Amino acid sequence: MPIAASPAPRRALVVVNPTAGTLRSGVLEQVLRLCRQHLQDVAVHRTTHRGSAAEAVRAALAPATAAGAGAVPDLVVAVGGDGTVHEVVRALAAADAKGAPGAGRSRAGAALAIVPAGTGNSGYRMLWAEQPWHQSLRATVTGDPARARLRRVDLGRLEETGGPVLLGACSGLIAQGLIAARSVAAAGREKYARALPDAAASFTPYPGRVTVDGQLLHEGATVLANVGGGRHRGGQYLVLPRSELDDGLLDVCVVGDEVAPAEVADLARAGLLHTRAGVVHGRGRRIRVERTDGLPLLFEHDGELQPLGFTSMTVGVLPGALAIWGAPREEETRVDTQGAVPLGGVAAP
Ligand SMILES: Nc1ncnc2c1ncn2[C@@H]1O[C@H](COP(=O)(O)OP(=O)(O)OP(=O)(O)O)[C@@H](O)[C@H]1O
């Protein structure tokens, strides 16, 4: 849902992860130049450790800072990968929940813009498709209504940890792929493209159950169950072809063992996963993914592996919880440039 007026931002906090996988030299300077050209006030924070992005956003939006009025950002530009974006989202969502003065143009103040510099960049892609970042950032900082729109999108809340879910949460194979990616020496989408077959080669489907608003969707051997969020995972795998970011509902795709783990990557990259027997889709407000043999469930959300202490992942929707800049027409973000998804999206069964 676009926010009616999409007011142009005035004060930005730019949070950059200097260690992000595909950050090219000169990008931060270009980001700062664009922001300073068009905004009243621009602060920059270079992250120094995991958690540093969230700390910087929390500090910038803290009531003490806000008391000094003018300095509170109404835009947070995250320059990095999906992990950095996730940290910023966590801090914005927490500020929003507390009603901090700088909190949301989510509810009250700061909105997110993304400059992609990571491995998958799924967050950027679901808002801007393949548009070059300097075009989208220029449109955002100038508040150009023909090219950028301030949108309020849904988040999920992972009940086991309380963490906010933006891109999606996935059990099984995609989580295993994150482990395999640690030993792949490549950057960008190539890293996951190489890691997923490695993960699939040794992956055994687990006994699972998935319920949507208390109704059983799937029970049996499970390759993965992805809840979102975004349509793509890893920036290239189409798992939720009909997911809307702002419909107040969560989509889920479950892949049963009728599909061999080794087939999943190619099918999802071609946008054909949903055509296979054993793949089911659901939509609802609360989605519970369980492992039924008592062993821990391997799952991730937003590209971060979750601790192995849970036998379930349960995601409830937080409708419209995040204000974020994206392309003005939702159709633009539905185009899969690899040709698999027609404009308007494919019809899931
Ligand atoms: N300066 C830093 N040093 C070490 N880790 C950092 C730093 N800044 C951020 N991090 C952490 O590194 C992780 C990965 O960062 P980020 O997502 O920006 O890049 P990436 O790994 O290249 O991309 P992706 O998340 O798409 O795989 C995040 O969890 C983030 O919290």
Automatic annotation (TrEMBL):
Family annotation (PANTHER family): LIPID KINASE YEGS (PTHR12358:SF106), SPHINGOSINE KINASE (PTHR12358)
Protein name: Diacylglycerol kinase
Family: Belongs to the diacylglycerol/lipid kinase family.
Annotated organism of origin: Streptomyces lasiicapitis
Keywords on record: ATP-binding, Kinase, Lipid biosynthesis, Lipid metabolism, Nucleotide-binding, Phospholipid biosynthesis, Phospholipid metabolism, Transferase
Cofactor(s) in the UniProt record: Mg(2+)
InterPro entries attached to this UniProt entry: ATP-NAD_kinase_N, Diacylglycerol_kinase_cat_dom, Lipid_Phosphate_FormReg, NAD/diacylglycerol_kinase_sf, YegS/DAGK_C
MF GO annotations: kinase activity
Residue span, DAGKc domain: 7-161
